[in-house]
Design brief:
Strand content: under 5%
Oligomer: single chain
Structural class: mainly alpha
Length: about 425
């Protein structure tokens, strides 16, 4: 039988199924052959020929079924390219059994179970790693996150204690401890941990609320914080907002009334303006237009540069069809300062429409559409209305259809499309 040179074997490897490669394996010294092909598999990976690398690794596994390194490399292929949910675990468990001191084998096994959401197995692996490599911060951090993800908050706290012994206390560790206590509904401990940074914590976590339990936790923290820091207007704001988000309008307005009493001087103007804007939004949603518009007026006196409040106030005035000249001036200032803001352009165009200035309205609503990144149903409907009053019925129909596709909640949009004309939404 013809004997293969090493070069010939590599060529055979790249062209034949891996199970045919054993035909001449006995021609070479076993250890040298294995080492050669293992290095060649590595070379093929570096060159980007992953199919060849995988075939070579399979052959290496046939040559030396007890090679932990080959099992490790094969596991990576099964994970990354074949998305296999079983083979990597089997291969990597064999690898760590063969070489229990190899950190990287353990790490990939833990990652595999984590990425496939088998958290029980992942925790088992990371606990073993934490015992074997007690000073590795990355292991403890991953284990702590696993306990966080699985709701085992007390175990997570125990791991956090170990981390702080290695790294020391920090704002990051305090935030993690705070989150664990929130998960345990231990509000006293949570507040004690975060009290030195309570304003930052409340603002940060208020934007992450996804359920009523989390919202109630934030309300509890806000109540404590306002009691301890009664002159901090930002804490009053978050307290009122948390009450309102929880559906307790009376408590929200009461919180705002308390906040106004805490205003000391002009140095609080911007923070105070934000409180008045929130009051305006709440009152408007409660259909209390008098109180809402009074609150917006106060907000703009305190902070005339607040374009968002000015825009919303102007738009709400247009919806109520009152003080349109005043609304136009408020809106004009916003587009002068932010000429590419599609929301502000839409408001200005809509006020012009309400004033019967259809040609001018068309110029600004078209600008709003051109500036719009992600189109909104309201802008599309307004654009249709304004095009209709400029004699462009087909253009109006096109924009009204686009508003439908954007899931408009308009009560008159379907009628406009059916009747091919503008329908006033006035009561």
């Amino acid at each position: 039988m013809k004997q293969f040179t090493l070069t010939t074997l590599i060529l055979v490897l790249l062209t034949l199924p891996c199970q045919l490669l054993c035909v001449q394996a006995d021609t070479f010294d076993g250890d040298g052959l294995f080492e050669y092909f293992f290095h060649e598999a590595t070379n093929q990976m570096y060159q980007g020929d992953l199919a060849a690398a995988f075939d070579i690794l399979q052959y290496c596994h046939e040559l030396n079924p007890s090679s932990a390194a080959v099992k490790f490399e094969l596991a990576k292929f099964y994970m990354l390219y074949f998305k296999d949910r079983e083979a990597p675990g089997l291969l990597l468990r064999e690898a760590v059994s063969l070489e229990p001191d190899n950190y990287w084998y353990w790490q990939l096994l833990g990652i595999f179970y984590s990425e496939t959401h088998r958290y029980t197995e992942a925790i088992e692996i990371y606990e073993k790693m934490a015992a074997q490599f007690p000073n590795r911060i990355d292991i403890l951090a991953d284990l702590m996150n696993l306990y966080d993800n699985t709701g085992e908050f007390r175990k997570g706290l125990a791991i956090l204690d170990r981390l702080e012994l290695l790294e020391g206390e920090s704002l990051q560790s305090a935030v993690q401890r705070f989150q664990f206590y929130l998960g345990l509904r231990d509000m006293d401990s949570a507040y004690i941990v975060i009290r030195p940074n309570v304003e930052w914590a409340i603002e940060t976590f208020s934007g992450m609320v996804t359920n009523i339990g989390q919202l109630n936790s934030i309300r509890n923290l806000c109540q404590r914080a306002v009691r301890d820091f009664p002159e901090n207007l930002n804490l009053h704001y978050w307290k009122a907002l948390s009450e309102y988000r929880a559906g307790d309008v009376s408590s929200a307005l009461s919180a705002l009334d308390s906040s106004f009493r805490a205003i000391k001087d002009d140095s609080d103007a911007i923070q105070a303006a934000r409180l008045y804007t929130l009051r305006g939004d709440i009152c408007y949603n409660q259909k209390d237009m008098v109180s809402a518009f009074d609150a917006y007026e106060h907000a703009l006196v305190l902070n005339p540069a607040d374009n968002m409040t000015a825009n919303n106030y102007a738009y709400f005035l247009s919806l109520e069809r009152r003080d349109l000249d005043k609304a136009l001036l408020l809106s004009l200032k916003t587009i002068q300062e932010e000429p590419l803001n599609s929301t502000y352009l839409d408001t200005y165009a809509w006020i012009l429409f309400r004033l019967g200035r259809y040609k001018s309205a068309l110029e600004y609503i078209d600008r709003a559409v051109q500036c719009e990144g992600e189109q909104s149903a309201d802008v599309m409907e307004h654009c249709g209305d304004i095009h209709y009053f400029n004699g462009d019925v087909e253009g109006a129909m096109n924009y009204w259809h686009q508003a439908v596709e954007l899931h408009s909640e308009s009560k008159t949009l379907e009628q406009k499309i059916q009747q091919r004309k503008y329908i006033d939404d006035a009561p």
